[in-house]
Structure formats: structure tokens, C-alpha cells
Design a protein that fits this description.
Layout lengths: L4 E6 L2 H12 L2 E2 L9 E5 L5 E6 L13 E5 L3 H13 L8 E3 L2 E7 L5 E5 L1
């Protein structure tokens, strides 16, 4: 058995969609085009990620420690992604050694935390 579908409630569907597409290689899923209300992406392993806009006036608040992780093949790749995110204006701390990984965390435009590690 494998996890094959995940739904995240986000504050900005389109900006989150663009981030995941550009920096993490996710691709549009299905015939429905991304909209401010929802979008669907997929990865190379068959995971479908749905992004849904939060209800009007409802803040997106994930519990402390909640995050989505993208495991990379090397420290060099982690560093490259970090620099590309910085170049695009995202507030990203420098990678560091943590819990046995070369890693960094940052806040997505959708309101959840992303970790990049190897």
C-alpha cells in the first residue's frame, strides 16, 4: 500500500501551485485547470496533491511540526533548490545539518511548511 492522495487547505492556491510546479517538479493533474479555488498536481510516483482554498475569513493554521518534505539525491541539489528559491524572493534560511540530514525549512505561500533535505 502507498499514499497516493493528499489534500492541503491553503491560503493561495495559484501561488502554491506555481511554487510546487517550478521548484519541485510537480505537474498539473487531470483536465481541470488550476484556479484560485483549487488545483491538482501529481508527482512522478503517482501521488496526487490537491490544493483547496480556505473558506473566506478562515485562517489556515497547521499544527506545529506539520510539514511536507522533498527528499533530494545530494547536498548539492538541496543547495541549488535553496538558491533558486532565494533568487525568486522566498524567505529561505540556509541549509544546515539537522537530525542527520542536510536540510532547510521554509513557509510556502499556501501557509504550510516545506522541508528540503537529503
Amino acid at each position: 500500500m502507498k499514499l497516493n492522495h493528499l489534500n492541503l487547505t491553503v491560503t493561495d492556491v495559484l501561488e502554491t501551485h506555481r511554487l510546487l510546479e517550478k521548484h519541485f517538479g510537480l505537474k498539473d493533474y487531470g483536465a481541470l485547470a488550476p484556479s484560485p479555488a483549487m488545483s491538482f498536481l501529481h508527482d512522478d510516483n503517482g501521488l496526487v496533491l490537491a490544493l483547496f482554498r480556505s473558506a473566506p475569513g478562515v485562517a489556515v493554521k497547521y499544527p506545529a511540526g506539520f510539514h511536507v518534505g522533498f527528499v533530494q539525491e545530494s547536498e548539492e541539489r538541496v543547495n541549488q533548490i535553496n538558491q533558486r528559491l532565494r533568487d525568486d524572493g522566498y524567505k529561505v534560511g540556509k541549509p544546515r545539518r539537522l537530525h542527520g540530514s542536510w536540510t532547510f525549512y521554509f513557509q510556502s505561500p499556501g501557509g504550510f511548511t516545506i522541508e528540503v533535505l537529503c
